[in-house]
């Protein structure tokens, strides 16, 4: 009679049960609800503070629940790491200039991607600590039972995808950071055969993931190859994207970081990470779609190249030999004071000059003279989604005076003054008329319909991020105000009083 060995796990059975304590599940559910409320709050400047608080509360619940319910090797070390990271984040948040916010967001995305890579490799190298082992074979010899274990196929897929997305997010975010910070050219860098190269690498990653998941052993070579190729493809996907597409890139990388976190959540059997990652991933994807729609471009066309990708890194630049009219702060103040309706269109130049507070003061003075003042925000103005909204909110511009493109564009025909401060591509009529322009098809403000256009920029030699000239500079009703944006607005205020 064969000897019976009780309690021997069957092949494919996990060695550890992943049953979740109902109180833990409830805590993670509460954290997830708070994250949803955070996203809802952040959708509007007027509720953004409350949204931030909801997000902080949800993260606190998730962290405390994880610390209390898991066996930790060294709680003091973990708490010390949290303290150090929190202190660094607090200092950065206090000191960061609003002009540097886009590259800060890109840098933070890179850290999320790197964290996913490190967690994935930690789980691969020490699967026992993460409860990832399943039985792959059982053999017996009299009283001796030998159990063979390995990481389960499903866990391998989760790990591979999490590491791949995380690595792609990291290297892509590093390139985005360098472009946004001006440490690398914002022009597209086009490699010969880049589409074939990228597609080939992605196919190779998927093939290696399948081989890694179906193998009988946990193959380090496959896992390392997936990681390296993902780092490479993240780099290759972002370098061809021009500066004008950077807002979409930022939201796209935000989405990637969320999916990386969600994949790692499945690997760690952590509901909070799955919920949070899914929320970030889906919201980032939706935002990317909205941004692409605002530029009348497809998502695939953005990640495949960017503005000017086929024609070259830049347009022809400004044609300063054409006739144009220069005005002074005194001239601008007179026309603004005599106007009934003024629409202000801010852009990245306002952010660079830190002119938002002076601009709000000018608006208040004009309102004191009975002028109807409104602000028009283009979805891709600045270097990240919502960049101009954040700046105006920082300057305490009333929310009911700020309008999106589709809500105010029809008003320019009845507007006395269109006041453009630091914007360029988003008011360029070439997007509507010139099929050879790299920004053709992007919805822009109809500023040319206003009675008077005032355009603040540093010099006539500069062009927008897309690198193309702007016919608005040379219109009969346009007054060019060439100066630092903040200094010019401050001079206008002096002449308004």
UniProtKB/TrEMBL annotation:
Top EC class, one word: translocase
Every NADP transhydrogenase beta-like domain range: 25-494
Compartment(s) where it occurs, according to its Swiss-Prot or TrEMBL record: Cell inner membrane
Keyword hit for Translocase: yes
SUPFAM superfamilies in UniProt: DHS-like NAD/FAD-binding domain (SSF52467)
GO annotation, cellular component aspect: plasma membrane
Catalytic reaction list: NAD(+) + NADPH + H(+)(in) = NADH + NADP(+) + H(+)(out)
The EC number(s) this enzyme carries: 7.1.1.1
Signal peptide: none
Keyword NADP belongs to the record: yes
Known partners and oligomeric status: Complex of an alpha and a beta chain; in Rhodospirillum, the alpha chain seems to be made of two subunits.
Name of the protein described by the UniProt record: NAD(P) transhydrogenase subunit beta
